[in-house]
């Protein structure tokens, strides 16, 4: 056999037994597209399948599906929260109404605002009879203190917003717009176990402790007495107490 024939035979054998890795590199093997070949090389180099898959272009359809699933999950959470709020308030309202019917002189009574379960008017009929505030109420023939309660979507895991509507009260931890300075009504001081009754009775105690009095005439430079103003005052109150705490300094300390 001539030397040229020998070279041809050797070349044929090299082509026949060429390694799969070289075939991949040449694009003639079973690895397919360049992206697929790159994925195989990364896998051989120790890259996990998840990392390799993440390097491939994402599908718009898959992204849209993830967003839809996220929106659906958020909707389910809101529905469950609404159901919890409704059940809790229905239970409390029934209990309060039962007490109103069974007691000739209940400490407070409740009525829904425009039949809205999430917005209540509470009339506080009883406070410490020896207090100056009770004396003011008797003198001015005011039968009760009217409170307005609004329950947020995440109640009972967040506190209701409560303000005094009438009469206008000075001191007694009652602020502008009728907002109430009471730690129990703040996110930090609230606990889901607190009931509406506990909130109302706590106010009845604090307004007397704070030496509240019925305002005989509005101050000369009084600001708007409204829910909006009360909410502004309460937000400012929460920020202040979040920064400095709820410790009241002695009068000698200013």
TrEMBL record:
Keywords (A to Z) from UniProt: ATP-binding, Nucleotide-binding, Transferase, Ubl conjugation pathway
The enzyme's E.C. designation: 2.3.2.23
EC supergroup of this enzyme: transferase
Biased segments, Low complexity type: 48-64
Positions of the UBC core domain: 84-247
InterPro entries from the UniProt entry: Ub_conjugating_enzyme (IPR050113), UBC (IPR000608), UBQ-conjugating_enzyme/RWD (IPR016135)
CDD domains: UBCc_UBE2Q
Region (Disordered): 15-78
GO MF entries: ATP binding; ubiquitin conjugating enzyme activity
Transport listed as a keyword: no
Functional description taken from the UniProt entry: Probable E2 ubiquitin-protein ligase that catalyzes the covalent attachment of ubiquitin to target proteins. May facilitate the monoubiquitination and degradation of MTOR and CCNE1 through interaction with FBXW7.
Name of protein: E2 ubiquitin-conjugating enzyme
Source organism per UniProt: Papilio xuthus
């Amino acid at each position: 056999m001539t030397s040229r024939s020998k070279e041809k035979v050797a070349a044929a054998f090299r082509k026949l037994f060429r390694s799969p890795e070289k075939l991949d590199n040449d694009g003639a093997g079973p690895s397919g597209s360049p992206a697929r070949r790159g994925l195989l090389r990364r896998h051989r180099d120790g890259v996990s399948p998840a990392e390799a898959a993440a390097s491939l272009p994402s599908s718009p359809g898959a992204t849209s599906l993830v967003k839809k699933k996220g929106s659906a999950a958020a909707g389910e959470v809101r529905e469950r929260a609404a159901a919890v709020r409704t059940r809790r308030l229905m239970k409390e309202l029934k209990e309060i109404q039962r007490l109103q019917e069974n007691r000739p002189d209940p400490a407070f009574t409740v009525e829904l605002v425009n039949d809205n379960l999430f917005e209540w008017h509470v009339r506080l009929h009883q406070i410490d009879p020896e207090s100056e505030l009770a004396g003011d109420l008797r003198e001015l023939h005011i039968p009760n203190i009217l409170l307005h309660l609004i329950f947020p979507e995440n109640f009972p895991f967040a506190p209701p917003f409560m303000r005094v509507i009438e009469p206008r009260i000075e001191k007694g931890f009652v602020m502008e717009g009728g907002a109430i300075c009471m730690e129990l009504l703040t996110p930090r001081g609230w606990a889901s176990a607190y009931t509406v009754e506990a909130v109302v009775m706590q106010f009845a105690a604090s307004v007397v402790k704070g030496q509240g009095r019925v305002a005989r005439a509005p101050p000369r430079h009084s600001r708007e007495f409204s829910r909006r103003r009360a909410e502004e005052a309460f937000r400012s109150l929460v920020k202040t107490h979040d920064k400095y705490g709820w410790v009241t300094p002695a009068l000698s300390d200013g």
